[in-house]
Write a structure and sequence with these properties.
alpha/beta; Rossmann fold; Hect, E3 ligase catalytic domain fold; 15 strands; DNA_bind_recombinase_dom; DNA_bind_recomb_sf
């Protein structure tokens, strides 16, 4: 018979498919010699990796026991196991298991009569997966056989199979609920219910009665490096990438595991460490925050300062890039887009630094061309002093904020008592919430929201109590320095290093805007503007400042009015403190203290240099003698300028102004 003589009703595609399937079956039957016995397969599984390698054995203890039991069952059925599928350390909560899927693929292409398992729960622990797997085996004409349970294709066997599958699902769900309850209870008592983060170690000890105790201890190899990471980043001198490189140089690595060796901490991992409240003594479990029983590696104040630094750098866009500049971040184009720095290299090998508008690259319609960085720097240098205060305005700042400090200090005792009472009530309320949750009186989502509300309020109260524990002397001292530096703002900025200029810009301005005519406009920080509006009625917001001759860094209008000065307070303070950059940071902190309605002291942070701290106390100044005051008044009466007298007697211009106006 030829192909042309076949009946027209035969489907050639189905015929080829049937022939291919028969060939596969014959090939599989020839490849596996069953000696006349029925072919069968077995599926072996344990739930955890610990079970799979227990006692140091390659397959642990359970897998060999299941294999022997499956072999005995195959002998009883007159079958031979042609292939076994092993699942070491895989949970049955899902059917997406490699060995299980390989087995289901195998039975569709190979003739098998029995699938032998040790128990029904080895195959699945939920009824849906069990029904799908059983249906797949039945479609392949394969009988599911349990070594320890009486299940078959009879009605009673099917009933028993369904009951056993339901019991397996119940066991899994109930176990998960009990484990979760125990972990929640451990967290509420301050314990760590999961793997401890880097810097800590999970340890197991035994008490006098032989009971195992699981606890968390400080990692002696990594704890000091984690503490250094928080302390260093809180200073504001480090970026995530530079700090990660420093930690790698100091030897900080992740903990090794049987599958992965130790490696240096990445920038992403470092960010996760710096934002983890576990290191300051608290832990979060299922969205609820608890007080931890472990030893904190950093104090709460340092941790909060780190969060502030992270938020500030993210908000102002000061992220590490290939090319850095102290104006990156606050410098904006008049179109509203940030100015970005580019450093192209010409054919002669010379590298040029330009600021370009990022909005033009995004095609927002801006037509600004690139501007050399030196040109922008000169424009800002020549106009920065216009943002300062006059001596009268500085005196007004001292007077008004000094009165505020006096009022706050007078009400400190009363406020401390009220805050302490409120704190005790919130602690009791939090305890009642946890007890009500354990009694199933309130749902978990309500517990989370209430715990978050209480935690936020308690943090604010504790922070305020810490502030009230100190006097307002530091704030007054910072206020004096702040007023001094604002009267000579242009001079200070001119003599600052790039890193110090970045600090000043961040403290005073949200944006520095450059328009098409290269006129510089300064948009002050909201706290700065609010403080000026409160203490100086009618004070105009910092507006556009026309750039004068770059060679003349003073403000001609203020000089002509006798209000200008080229004396730098930074030099004067630097001579007494020995570190100008620390002084600028100190003044930044002083501003933050003075613009608020409360004192927010910052503990001194030690630096690598011996005897240098980030906020040194101001040294006492020798009072002027009566002869020196008379000499000042005589010089002023003879027409000598205030700035010249200040330099001669090594005092501030405001002091000269105060002593000579009588």
């Amino acid at each position: 018979m030829t192909l042309t003589s076949l009946p027209s009703g035969i489907d050639m595609g189905e015929l080829r498919k049937l022939a291919a399937t028969a060939a596969k079956i014959q090939q599989a039957a020839g490849a596996t010699d069953t000696n006349g016995l029925v072919p069968a397969i077995s599926y072996l599984r344990v739930s955890t990796k610990d079970q799979a390698t227990r006692n140091g054995l390659e397959e642990g203890l359970s897998i060999p026991a299941q294999r022997k039991a499956a072999q005995r069952k195959a002998d009883q059925l007159g079958a031979v196991i042609v292939k076994e599928f092993i699942e070491p350390g895989e949970s049955a909560k899902t059917a997406q298991r490699r060995a299980l899927q390989d087995m289901l693929d195998y039975v569709t292409e190979n003739p098998v009569q029995y699938c032998i398992i040790n128990k029904v729960d080895r195959l699945a622990r939920n009824r849906l997966d069990d029904a799908i797997i059983h249906a797949t085996l039945r479609d392949a004409n394969i009988s599911l056989v349990s070594v320890t349970e009486n299940i078959d294709e009879t009605p009673s066997g099917m009933l028993m199979h369904g009951i056993l599958a339901s019991m397996a699902e119940f066991y899994s769900l109930n176990l998960a609920q009990e484990v979760l309850k125990g972990m929640t209870q451990k967290a509420s008592m301050g314990g760590t219910p999961a793997k401890a983060p880097l810097g800590y170690l999970n340890v197991r000890t035994t008490d006098a009665k032989g009971h195992e105790i699981r606890d968390v201890t400080v990692d002696p190899e990594r704890a000091d490096l984690i503490t250094f990471a928080f302390t260093a980043y809180a200073t504001g001198d480090w970026t995530l990438s530079s700090l990660a490189a420093e930690l790698e140089a100091r030897g900080l690595t992740t903990r090794p595991t049987p599958s992965f060796p130790s490696k240096p901490v990445t920038t992403k991992a470092l960010h996760k460490i710096l934002t983890n409240p576990y290191y300051q003594g608290s832990l979060t479990f299922r969205g609820v925050t608890y007080d931890g029983a472990h030893d904190p590696l950093v104090d709460t104040e340092t941790w909060l300062r780190v969060q502030t630094e992270l938020a500030a750098k993210n908000q102002r866009g000061e992220k590490p890039r290939t090319h850095d500049h102290y104006l990156k971040g606050p410098l904006y184009c008049s179109c509203g887009a940030k100015m970005m720095i580019e450093c192209p290299t010409g054919k002669s090998g010379i590298t040029y630094e330009y600021f370009t508008c990022s909005g033009r690259r995004k095609k927002n319609g801006c037509t600004r061309s690139a501007i050399l960085t030196d040109r922008i720097e000169d424009r800002i240098d020549s106009t920065y002093g216009a943002n300062g205060l006059t001596p009268d305005e500085a005196d007004r700042v001292r007077e008004v904020l000094g009165a505020v400090f006096d009022q706050l200090e007078a009400t400190t005792d009363h406020e401390r008592a009220l805050l302490t009472t409120q704190k005790e009530k919130l602690d009791a309320e939090r305890l009642k919430l946890v007890q009500a949750h354990y009694a199933d009186a309130i749902p978990l989502d309500l517990l989370k929201s209430e715990q978050e509300r209480i935690r936020t309020t308690l943090d604010a109260i504790e922070h305020r109590l810490e502030n009230l524990a100190t006097s307002y002397e530091d704030a007054r001292e910072g206020l004096d320095q702040l007023a001094d530096i604002l009267t000579d703002l242009g001079d200070v900025y001119t003599r600052c290093e790039p890193a110090e200029r970045r600090i000043l810009n961040r403290a005073l301005f949200d944006k520095i805007i450059l328009d098409d005519e290269e006129t510089v406009r300064y948009q002050p920080d909201q706290a700065v503007q609010a403080a000026l509006d409160c203490v100086i009625p009618g004070h105009a917001p910092i507006a556009a400042a026309e750039a004068s001759d770059p060679e003349d860094t003073s403000n001609p209008a203020r000089l002509s009015a006798g209000q200008g000065s080229k004396m730098s307070l930074l030099v004067d303070v630097g001579e007494r403190c020995g570190n100008k950059r620390r002084v600028v940071k100190r003044l930044n902190t002083a501003w933050n203290r003075s613009v608020g309605n409360a004192c927010t002291p910052v503990e001194p942070v030690a630096y690598a240099e011996s005897g240098v701290v980030s906020e040194p106390r101001r040294r006492s100044r020798t009072p002027l003698t009566e002869q020196e005051v008379d000499a000042m008044r005589t010089a002023r009466a003879n027409g000598v300028s205030v700035s010249t007298i200040a330099r001669q007697f090594r005092v501030h211009r405001g002091t000269v102004w105060e002593k000579t106006h009588y």
